[in-house]
Design goal:
2 copies of one chain form a homodimer. The first copy, chain A, has about 375 residues and is of the alpha+beta class. Chain A contains 11 helices and 17 strands. In chain A, strand 1 (about 15-20), helix 1 and strand 2 form a beta-alpha-beta unit. In chain A, helix 2 runs parallel beside helix 3 and helix 4 crosses helix 5 (about 115-120).
């Protein structure tokens, strides 16, 4: 296999940042690139994509189309992703042509829930108890070992609660495996957490590191409802969360923004739930509350620029606008900083936009 | 002549805001439209334009090309401008096809320095002493009447100090008229001001009004160097500046953002220098320091949305990045909120970007 390309010097203003994936994250990355005088090129597997509305440089083609990926790489100075599920072959191909950030190792580690949790454990971080499951009988045996209730998840490609089933006993676990089409899976024990949180942080190619204050996150129906910063995390927990993000980023030799979803247990412990090798919904409040948003921060890291200041100059509450809630855009426009993603249909459970309310800085 | 189109209901998310002019103001308007889920279409008379980098909807054609203007209007739900010097015929043509905001009256009043100053005086606002000049002998006579020193400016098409000559006596004034190619001109008496300021404000189609806190502006070589908010204006002067903007906006039945450049005299009076019927360089700090920036505010007004909150949540200093200063982008990226406009050549006196520093709110 050919050597992965690296970036010898920063991408200068006027250069092109390639973004794989044209959803709202790609769109907000493209808008952040534009602020810095960088051009954004978007590659998306469907013709209509929110990010296609904000740059003329765009390719709509399947994610495994080698010729199209080659042409895309041709026009880019550096390449990144708005999602972690690109086929491994495609990543390797792009990386042989242009610098890809974050790199293949980060993507492959986080694409698979079992690999991801094993990686976190190896770093000495706490996770839910878990076991790999590749047959119905393994599912039953894993349940017997971990105890219940538990949750069976496909190892790959799940998001927003998709690809997961709650199980109460061994027979449930076996049935859930079949329900998930016998895909390689992972059984996770439930964590009795007090609340959820996340930490969004960036690492530069030079090893520099910048973490945003960790928000508390409220989920509804497996979808992020709102992020509150500062939430219920103590100052010490906030620092611990940032240290966890740094440990993960360093171990992956990570370049770019990553997010670590955490459970905060009743005794105050922090348990790593998921690692997202990209900008994250729980970091959207940084657009208004920080001098450098998570989107600009990611573009800076990918382009080899110095990281920006992650300091928060205000408290913030970010609320997602989901499905039909977007129909109320006119009244939403009266009540805070409104972001809409340019999606045509307000389907059930679809993230259509978000609102951020700023409040005076408290801590 | 056909009737100007009006907007019966707000342009919904997914609608298209047409922007005439593809410079940095058009670019930042397009980025603001994207935040709100609106698409931006750009019409520019040159092939390379900063705003062409941030939307696929773009036409490069002369500003008087009727067929192209017609096609552009076809794809737009409402149309606005990043500059005030579009030919009157073109404005009337666009207005016969789609709602144009601000309207023809605002543009025609402010396109001509004599009309603009006469309009301000008729509203009871203070201006520098002035006289229309259409021949060398009129220039000399006007100088004799106003006294010196004075400044001869073309009535139309000047910006950043272009199209103006300082004159010390009547012979100078006559020579200056010839130097300005005998274009219809205006002689303006000098104002002995303490400092310069501006007020950026918005008016909605429903008559609603929202003004930003007025910055103090520092010019160098006729180009804005920096805007400071709050500057040396007192609270009372700030309120007076906002009242001036409101008087002007109401009188023009204005829709959108406008800026009024002011001289603050040593005795504390406010003198109207220029009216810009558009977003303005001295309002760039609102991107970071306000929940709703001047760009979003203008898009909201043009699209018939409710105006956003102009409250300032921080003090700010905005500094332009001019010409070769842009070569220092890597060190500038370390020191504040950096905006670069995607211009290819860092020509002398060209605005390449700007930086905003936020500071804790003082007043």
């Amino acid at each position: 296999m050919s050597q992965a390309k690296t970036l010898d010097k920063p991408v200068p203003p006027g250069g092109v940042i390639g973004i794989i994936g044209g959803g709202q994250l790609g769109r907000m990355l493209a808008l952040a690139a534009a602020r810095l005088g960088l051009k954004a090129a978007i590659y998306n597997d469907e013709n209509h994509a929110p990010a296609f509305q904000v740059t003329p440089l765009q390719i709509a083609a399947p994610y495994d189309d080698r010729a199209m990926l080659t042409g895309f790489a041709e026009i880019c100075d550096a390449i990144t992703f708005e999602f972690e599920n690109l086929p491994s072959d495609a990543i390797a191909h792009l990386a042989s042509l242009k610098p890809v950030r974050p790199g293949r190792r980060a993507l492959e580690t986080t694409q698979d829930r079992f690999t991801e949790k094993s990686f976190a454990q190896a770093l000495g971080l706490k996770t839910a108890p878990f076991a790999a499951v590749s047959s119905a009988s393994e599912a039953e045996a894993a349940f017997a070992r971990l105890g219940g209730p538990a949750i069976l998840k496909t190892r790959r490609l799940g998001y927003d609660g998709k690809g997961q089933v709650k199980v109460a006993n061994g027979a449930d676990a076996a049935a859930a495996f079949t329900q998930l089409r016998s895909a390689p899976s992972i059984l996770e024990g439930f964590v009795d957490f007090a609340f959820e949180a996340s930490v969004v942080a960036a690492r530069g190619a030079d090893g520099s590191f910048a973490a945003y204050d960790p928000p508390e996150n409220i989920h509804e129906n497996h979808i992020l409802r709102r992020s509150i910063v500062p939430g219920r995390l103590s100052k010490a927990q906030g620092e611990e969360a940032k240290a966890i993000a740094r440990k993960i980023a360093d171990a992956l030799d990570y370049v770019g923004v990553l997010a670590v979803e955490l459970f905060v247990t009743r005794d105050g412990g922090l348990i790593v739930n998921e690692i997202a090798p990209r900008v994250h919904n729980s970091g959207h409040w940084t657009i208004e509350a920080c001098a450098c948003s998570q989107f600009e921060q990611h573009v800076r890291a990918v382009a080899g620029w110095p990281l920006g200041d992650p300091a928060r100059h205000a408290d913030a509450v970010m609320e997602n606008i989901i499905g039909a809630e977007a129909h109320a855009w006119e009244s939403l426009a009266r009540t805070g900083a409104l972001h809409l993603y340019g999606k045509r249909e307000a389907r059930l459970g679809r993230k259509m936009g978000h609102m951020t309310q700023l409040k005076p800085l408290t801590k």
